Amino acid sequence: MAEVTLKQITKKYENQAVIENLNLSVPDGSFTVLVGPSGCGKSTTLRMIAGLESITEGELQIGNEKVNHTPPGKRDVAMVFQNYALYPTMSVFDNIGFGLRNRGLSRVETKKQVEEIAEVVGLTDYLQRKPSHLSGGQRQRVALARAMVKKPKVFLMDEPLSNLDAKLRNQMRVELTSLHKQMGTTFIYVTHDQVEAMTMGDQIVVMNQGEIQQVASPIDLYSMPANLFVAQFIGSPPMNVVSMYNQPSCVIGFRPEKAAIDVFESLDTVAGKGLMLNGVLVSREILGSELLYYVETKDERVVVKGSTESIIEVGMNVRVSVDAKHLYFFDRATGTRIIGEKRKAMANSVIGGIA
Amino acid sequence: MQNEAVAKPEIEMLESAHAQAWPQQKPAWGRWETIRPYAYVTPALLFFALFFFYPIGYVMYLSFHDWSLLNLEAKEWVGFANFTELFQEQDFYQVVINTGLFTVLTVALGIGLAFLLALWLNRKAKIYGIIQGTIFSPHIISLVSVSMLWMWMMDPQYGLLNAVLEALGLPAYTWLSDTKSALLSLVLVSVWKVVGYNTIVFIAGLQSIPRDIYEAAELDRSSRIKTLYKITVPMLSPTIFFLLVINTISSFQVFDTIAIMTQGGPVSSTNMLVYYIYEQGMDFFNGGIASAASVILLGLVGLLTLVHFAFMSRRVHYR
């Protein structure tokens, strides 16, 4: 067990920086998820921690020890790869035991440990098989077992579930989180899927273009996004963003599930305490328990989540209203969320008016 | 396995449906149905028969006769006499041993060296591409030109090789002029010719190994040597097998270099099967012996290929 600290880490490929001055602390025993769109540097960061990618500048510590130049095998980390990276020519047994043998464990001890771990992940009957004779889920388990058997200080996972079908992915998600609880080891997990990040992580690191946007717990990330990027990246469907006429320097955001939608019958201004938007319902998606309305206002298109109890027909004039406390304000230039007194002032200028 | 089990009932279903659609009330049609597949493959079979089975069969037929290219009509059935004569000939054993030795050395060196070169050249920088191209170039040059070139290089007095040895203060080497070194010199030429091709095939094989497997091995604390023989070599086994088979067959049939550089000499020390066959048939007008030796060559190459398949295919990993 160990904490992982990245201090002023910079990674350059041929003088082009993909990550610059990245600072991150992964607490001991946490399940930290690095999430972001493809090309945001999350995988590169993970690979630098593993030692598969060199660090151009900065300092990487695992358990208070600087490991910038320690070879991957000596960092006491284990990694699960996206494509599992099993050794195709070796049996499941040898795949799991290879690392142990390389650490100088005896044949007998290796056998004992491999069999133990195979029992845990349910591979006992498959130990003599080659990976090519296993299903995707079983290969995933071999990859996990190979990492677990080394009892590493830090567990690294690079999109390990992306090759599984949806059902198996949900199942593995649960298994991985319970595995984390059992082992109590530090997990660092990379994904581009915000649902995966939200459901599994206790600390989520949102990254974009090589920079950390926000580090927070899932619920804080959802309710208190640091900026527009995080606000729109986390949550499905993403947060709506609309302009404010009386405050051109900022934009307003609101979540589809926090807005109400009504058929717009009279021109009476309803005395409300929040944002009112008039528009036309252009399409809707029924998801079962709920449904999504796509509303076109004068300038923007917004999404509102509604219940299936009363369904509004497409083509109707509708009014979308959002309570003031569910409004987020962002600086238009920087994207930073506006908080405190300044937010209060903004909210007041919106209330009652039709933006 | 599973797929077959699933597929089978379907085929059976199709067959029974077929039987219903074509009840056996029209016997003429039924016969055509059985003949039809054979009719379709007949043209190809004829082609094979004419250009493959017939020549091979004819050589076998000729190997039981005493005949000469000068007068093909006057051939005489002699039974196994040609074979008995061959097996009593000391020279023929020498020829078979030479061929075997040449093949083993050429294949071992050609593949071993190519493997090392491939490990070295499997990199991105431009210079490695240039080297790859350079070592591949002998493969596209005619063997006759290659032989002429090396004959000059191996000339004891005016040759480049001895000049280099001399410049380095080393004694001159006999190359093609000594019974002990002539075969090795021919091996050198063959290896030089084949190594570039083998290297390119190996590089292609190396590049098809996913990089993350090596990364996993690194995290598993595998040393470089261990990664090489536990991961790289097993992953390359189909490539090694392929090269082994084609290199063995081509080495067994070496001819051009001998014909140009040594004519089998000195004292039969470089005489090998194909050249021996040529010599018997064309120089000594001994058609029967030449045919019998051809049959033996065919048998040997066939046997070797079978051995390769039997021993190697079990150990070869195909994805």
UniProtKB/TrEMBL annotation, chain A:
GO cellular component terms, semicolon-separated: ATP-binding cassette (ABC) transporter complex, substrate-binding subunit-containing
Name listed for the protein in its UniProt record: ABC transporter, ATP-binding protein
GO biological process, one term: carbohydrate transport
Source domain of life: Bacteria
SUPFAM superfamilies in alphabetical order: MOP-like, P-loop containing nucleoside triphosphate hydrolases
UniProt keyword terms in alphabetical order: ATP-binding, Cell membrane, Membrane, Nucleotide-binding, Translocase, Transport
Protein source organism: Aneurinibacillus aneurinilyticus ATCC 12856
GO molecular function terms listed in the Swiss-Prot or TrEMBL record: ABC-type transporter activity; ATP binding; ATP hydrolysis activity
InterPro entries in alphabetical order: AAA+_ATPase, ABC_transporter-like_ATP-bd, ABC_transporter-like_CS, ABC_transpr_MalK-like, ABC_transpr_MalK/UgpC-like, Mo/tungstate-bd_C_term_dom, NA-bd_OB-fold, P-loop_NTPase
Classification via Pfam families: ABC_tran, TOBE_2
Domain (ABC transporter): residue spans on this chain: 4-234
PROSITE patterns in the cross-refs: ABC_TRANSPORTER_1, ABC_TRANSPORTER_2
UniProtKB/TrEMBL annotation, chain B:
Coiled coil: none
Residue ranges occupied by any ABC transmembrane type-1 domain in the UniProt entry: 96-308
UniProt-listed Pfam families: BPD_transp_1
TM annotation in the entry: 38-61, 95-121, 133-152, 183-207, 227-246, 284-311
Name used for this protein in its record: Putative transmembrane permease MsmF
Domain of life assignment: Bacteria
GO CC terms, sorted: plasma membrane
